[in-house]
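Subject: design request, 354 residues
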């Protein structure tokens, strides 16, 4: 089976950065006659309920789905290279009302904040928890994101939300506990077989293998599926599938300090569910101590590093690729994706080439 290798990645955020390196590598592959296919992450401007075009992906799990398809196509020899691309000018490309209207994916009578709160209520019931414990865990999560965010050396790393965002916006979470979408983002991830890497003079040590992309999906999303979503059995399935594909116990590797992690942090119940489903913690009572000891994002999360609608997992795959290449200690990285209210779950595992 042919390896699927990430051989280049690039992104821009609010006009910082450049895609040129990735575009140049793609052009070189085409000039050399290698087969290359593009998979596209839809922007917010593509209506949520519109027909999905071939080679297009939608939802926060979309980039992990695209990665799974890319891995399959390259492993099978159907193509030499895949580029996963996504772009969304959420800050500058929409006025406020346009953005709100397009984000009302369950209708104006059922806003996302209400959906999030009802899902959290169902999750609390399933785990014999309480609103007080949940709100404390949400704060513990935010402090974990903040520690990572403030450790970054970018000029944005010291910019924290205004005080008003620390107020409750629903009975169960504050503004800072949810994804902040106000960002202009574009990104490209170039994945190829060993022949593509060789054509670009990229050594194995400068490549990262797509070791796994596990997926779990329910038959529907939204209010009618909250009870099924809150079980997160499909998240556990996605995680276990990823570990089986990669032939590793990721949780043990992460606890031992040999792996990086980017949990999807769109609202608190999602990262909490991931930590439980992955076995990183056994119960809610273990979460505070775990979050004190381990950073669960490499970016600072979607709350602070921003969440570009369908593209956060693409941003996180790009970051994971680059941080694994730069890391002296970590051989593995996992990236989590959450689609819609949570009906789609994906877990990608990347690893350094041995």
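Subject: RE: design request

Done. Sequence follows.
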């Amino acid at each position: 089976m042919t390896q699927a290798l990430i051989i280049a990645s690039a992104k821009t955020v609010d006009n910082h950065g450049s895609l040129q390196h990735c575009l140049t590598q793609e052009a070189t592959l085409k000039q050399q006659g290698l087969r290359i296919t593009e998979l596209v992450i839809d922007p917010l401007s593509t209506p949520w309920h519109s027909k999905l075009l071939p080679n297009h992906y939608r939802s926060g799990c979309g980039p992990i789905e695209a990665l799974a398809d890319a891995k399959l196509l390259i492993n099978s020899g159907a193509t030499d290279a895949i580029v996963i691309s996504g772009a969304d000018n959420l800050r500058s490309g929409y006025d406020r009302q346009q953005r709100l209207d397009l984000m009302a994916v369950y209708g104006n009578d059922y806003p996302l904040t209400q959906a999030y709160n009802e899902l959290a209520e169902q999750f609390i019931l399933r785990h014999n928890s309480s609103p007080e414990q949940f709100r404390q865990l949400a704060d513990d999560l935010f402090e974990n994101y903040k520690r990572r965010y403030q450790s970054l050396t970018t000029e944005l790393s010291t910019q924290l939300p205004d005080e008003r965002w620390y107020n409750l916006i629903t009975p169960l979470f504050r503004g800072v506990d949810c994804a902040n979408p106000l960002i202009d983002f574009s990104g490209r991830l170039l994945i190829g077989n060993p022949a593509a890497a060789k054509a670009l003079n990229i050594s194995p040590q400068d490549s990262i293998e797509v070791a796994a992309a596990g997926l779990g999906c329910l038959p529907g999303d939204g209010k009618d599926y909250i009870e099924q979503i809150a079980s997160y059995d499909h998240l556990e399935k996605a995680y276990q599938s990823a570990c089986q594909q990669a032939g590793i116990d990721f949780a043990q590797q992460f606890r031992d300090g040999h792996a990086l992690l980017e949990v999807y942090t769109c609202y608190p119940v999602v990262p909490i569910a991931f930590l439980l489903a992955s076995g990183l913690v056994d119960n809610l009572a273990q979460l505070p101590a775990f979050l004190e000891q381990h950073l669960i994002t490499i970016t600072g999360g979607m709350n602070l590093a921003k969440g570009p609608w369908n593209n956060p997992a693409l941003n996180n795959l790009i970051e994971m690729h680059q941080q694994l290449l730069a890391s002296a200690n970590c051989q593995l990285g996992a990236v989590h994706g959450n689609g819609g209210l949570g009906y789609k779950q994906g877990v990608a595992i990347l690893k350094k080439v041995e």
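Residues 23 and 188 are 8 Å apart (CA to CA).
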